[in-house]
Amino acid sequence: MRDIGVIKAAGALPRRLLSYVTFEALLVIVSSCLVGALSALLVYASWSWPSISLFKQVGPIADAGAAVLIVVPMISFLLAYMVASVRVRRIVASSSVNAISKQLANLDLKSLGKPLRIGRFGSAFNLATRNVSRDRGFNKTLLSMGVCICLSMIVLSGALVSADTSASYVVRAMPPHVLIVANSNIYNQYVSLATSFSRIAPLPPIDYGNESYIISPRNASAFRAIPGVQRVDTRLITMSSITGYVKAHFASNQDTGENINTQIIPEVDTGSTNALIVGINATSAIGDWYTSDGFLQSSDAQYTMIAGDSLVGNIVQTPFNLSQVSALGYRYDVKSALVDPLNAGRVLYAPVETLQKSLGLNGFNVLLLKVNGDPTVLFAVSQLASSFGLVVGSQDPILNSNLTFLNDTWSHIFLVPILALALTCGILLSYVATNFSRRFNDYVVLKVLGANAWYRLRLLLWESWGVIAISMLIAIPVGWAVSIFFLVPDPSVSVGDLELSTIISASALTMVCLVSVAIYSRRLGFTTVKDLKP
User: Fold this and answer.
1) Least confident range of 48-62, 126-140, 446-460, 504-518
2) In terms of CB atoms within 10 Å, which of 182, 319, 512, 531 comes out highest?
3) What is the CA radius of gyration of the chain?
4) What pLDDT, on a 0 to 100 scale, did the predictor assign at position 72?
């Protein structure tokens, strides 16, 4: 500001002054974007070595790595340039006197002599509150720091909440203390289907409807009579080719949702794929899946299906009231979607009676038994299953395998919130250093008047920690609220997640305070009265 004031007072043309200031801002922005892009590329290369792939398709994005490497710095440049151009024009438009006396303009003289005084914290604390209370830019600094801390808290606590929530989805779909009863071939196939979420392995072909695999309703009912068996989930599973459709419907106004009766959109074929179809009795289902619009009910129509999450967006389209699936020669209406690791989410649930009718079978090929965990129950179930030529296994190892896979995946994803927190620390370090620089003369005068190094250190610490602490008190609860209520549906929130994210953030920001104070205090140690700025 002082440089601009001097240049304007010397008679520089406004256009030349604007070009000078704009080019300086562009130089900083361009160099920052280039350094950031190259640093990100090096981090990615070291993290993914030796399988570096910048030209792999991720979802609908071709050459995803290269696209991100180009698009993100460009967007960063455009946003930074837009903000910088507004600030530059505001600075250039200011008067010479205002530019030269900018440091005095930052002092709120009305609040001078009204600092917060607490005797037990000492004079350093009282002087720090006086310095902060005199700063006209305090509210702007508080807002900027609060936004940075809030965003980093959303990323950090959101990642922890999302990790626990995704694990809870899996546990709800595959509850613990459940026994799997089936023919040995069907049992092995079911285990492969249940673990296909956490491992990639081809599924061997199998005749799911083979008569030797079918468990009669009478044999299934025999398991219900065993003491300690709380529920018997009777299922009929099969693998089939399915085709998705969007039903013909009247066009609707995107703004009001009202039908435009003069235009009909014809039926659309959304494609075909192989999927696991599970016939299930809704009244005895063991799972408590997370669904978009509820699970199957006894009141649902006969040809109704629930689609797995991996089918939604391609074969099954939203809204679900317009979506249909053709399987085994019948058209099914899609009621809702669910999260299920079975067959990696490529699964459809339908009423077991409907599937039995389609396959011409009267029975089931998989039984899931919810038990109380008593070893005698397992022995009784095994004895009865053996008499029917069936095998018994626990679902717990499958659940543990899927949860381990999730934990390993999230351990890699947690690099993102750590980098976001590091970025926040760098930004706040810049804010704190800028605030110190604006009061440089005050600190030099204190040293000249005899303030020792320990007093100066405490003064700097109170000033920096006070501003950051106030920002955290506002930003952290807001970050919690966004993470809990807006990031993931039906979240699983634990006090430990919120405490961990708060401790990590508070520790990192405390380190920012200590580092900034240590650096600036050391700098003040080498200053003299000659270093006072005009």
Assistant:
1) 126-140
2) 182
3) 33
4) 83
> Running DSSP on this structure, what letter comes out for residue 109?
G
Q: Tell me the whole-structure pTM to 2 decimals.
A: 0.77
16 burial type by CB count under 10 A (0-12 exposed, 13-18 middle, 19+ buried): exposed
510-521: buried (b, 16+ CB within 10 Å) or exposed (e) per residue? eebbeebbeebb
> How far is CA 63 from each of CA 42, 44, 56, 57, rounded to the nearest angstrom?
18, 15, 5, 5
pLDDT given for residue 460 in this prediction: 83
Taking the alpha carbons of 199, 204, 207, 213 in that order, is the dihedral positive or negative?
Answer: negative
Element (H, E) at 233: strand 229-246
% of the chain residues with pLDDT over 90: 38
Q: Say if residues 348 and 308 touch (Cβ distance below 8 Å).
A: yes
* Amino acid occupying residue 83: V
Residue 377 has pLDDT above 70, yes or no: yes
User: Per residue in 55-76, pLDDT tens?
Assistant: 776 666 777 777 888 888 888 8
- Cα–Cα distance measured from residue 474 to residue 136, given in angstroms and rounded to the nearest whole number: 20
**DSSP conformation letters of 487-500:** SSSS----HHHHHH
Q: What is the mean pLDDT of residues 211-226?
A: 94
Q: Tell me the pLDDT band of 24, cut-offs 50, 70 and 90.
A: confident
Q: Are 136 and 107 in contact (CB under 8 A)?
A: yes
Characterise 269 by phi-psi region: left (phi > 0), alpha (psi -120 to 50), beta (else): beta
Reported as a single tens digit per residue, the pLDDT across 468-491 is 888 888 899 998 889 888 888 888
Unique residue bearing structure tokens 């604390």: 125
- Which of 50-64 are b and which e, b meaning 16 or more Cβ less than 10 Å from the residue's Cβ? eeeeeeeeeeeeeeb
Token pair, residue 471, equals: 């920002």
Question: How many whole angstroms separate alpha carbon 528 and alpha carbon 449?
Answer: 11
Rounded CA separation 366/190 (Å):
8
The number of residues in the chain equals 534
DSSP assignment of 417-480 equals HHHHHHHHHHHHHHHHHHHHHHTHHHHHHHHHTT--HHHHHHHHHHHHHHHHHHHHHHHHHHHH
Burial track 244-274 (b if 16+ CB lie within 10 A, e otherwise): bbbeeeeeeeeeeeeeeeeeeeeeeebeeee
Residue 214 DSSP symbol: P
Distances (CA, A) of 425 to 97, 166, 512: 35, 29, 6
**92, 22 Cβ separation under 8 angstroms:** no
The amino acid at residue 267 is E
